[in-house]
């Protein structure tokens, strides 16, 4: 019997009430009519609010710049899930893979060992997740680089973190305002003030 029938719910809202022990990452691909970009954190479904213009523009700026500068063996993707473990599957705003890998065309996630960089653009409803929960989980799963992007007077500020393998935690390596210039995980130079231009 499905969870929906067991709880007397309409099939299309089967995700509305979790089973005992919470949802699993496998459930994300099976539950009908989940809202787009639903994440799983500690067995609970996290629904995402509509995207603001700042958020969309930052994603576009970073995706184009990273795609242009990432190593040929890497791939840059927006809003692709990372399955961290059975109870956690999250969707960074932008990710860079370690190496290009042909996935099954229907696969909806990467494993953490395939990820070089995860980027989260902070929204009003995601502050705690993006500042505390997700970085901790990315680090615990071994994702080597993490960026958190905040908004300051309409412009992005990028907080850059690198994994300390000894502590399995991120350390902040820099805060970047107008221009992001890095040598790791590969040489990167991004004009952050280009966010409001039609072409970065």
UniProtKB/TrEMBL annotation:
Cell inner membrane among keywords: no
Domain Putative restriction endonuclease positions: 26-192
Alphabetized UniProt keyword annotations: Endonuclease, Hydrolase, Nuclease
Any one GO molecular function term: endonuclease activity
Pfam families from the UniProt entry: Uma2
Keyword Hydrolase: yes
Stated name of the protein: Endonuclease, Uma2 family (Restriction endonuclease fold)
Source species: Streptomyces melanosporofaciens
């Amino acid at each position: 019997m499905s969870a929906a029938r067991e709880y007397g719910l309409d099939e299309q809202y089967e995700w509305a009430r979790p089973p005992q022990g919470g949802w699993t990452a496998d459930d994300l691909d099976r539950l009908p009519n989940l809202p787009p970009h639903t994440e799983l954190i500690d067995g609970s479904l996290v629904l995402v609010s509509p995207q603001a213009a700042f958020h969309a523009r930052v994603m576009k700026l970073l995706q184009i710049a990273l795609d242009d500068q990432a190593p040929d063996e890497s791939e840059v993707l927006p809003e692709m899930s990372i399955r961290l473990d059975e109870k956690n599957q999250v969707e960074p705003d932008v990710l860079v893979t370690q190496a290009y890998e042909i996935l099954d065309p229907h696969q909806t996630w990467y494993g953490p060992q395939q990820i070089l960089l995860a980027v989260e653009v902070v929204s009003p409803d995601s502050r705690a997740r993006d500042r505390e929960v997700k970085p901790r989980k990315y680090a615990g799963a071994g994702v080597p680089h993490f960026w958190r992007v905040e908004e300051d007077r309409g412009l992005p500020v990028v907080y850059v973190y690198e994994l300390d393998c000894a502590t399995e935690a991120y350390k902040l390596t820099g805060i970047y305002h107008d221009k992001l210039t890095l040598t790791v995980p590969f040489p990167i130079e991004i004009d952050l003030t280009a966010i409001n231009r039609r072409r970065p």
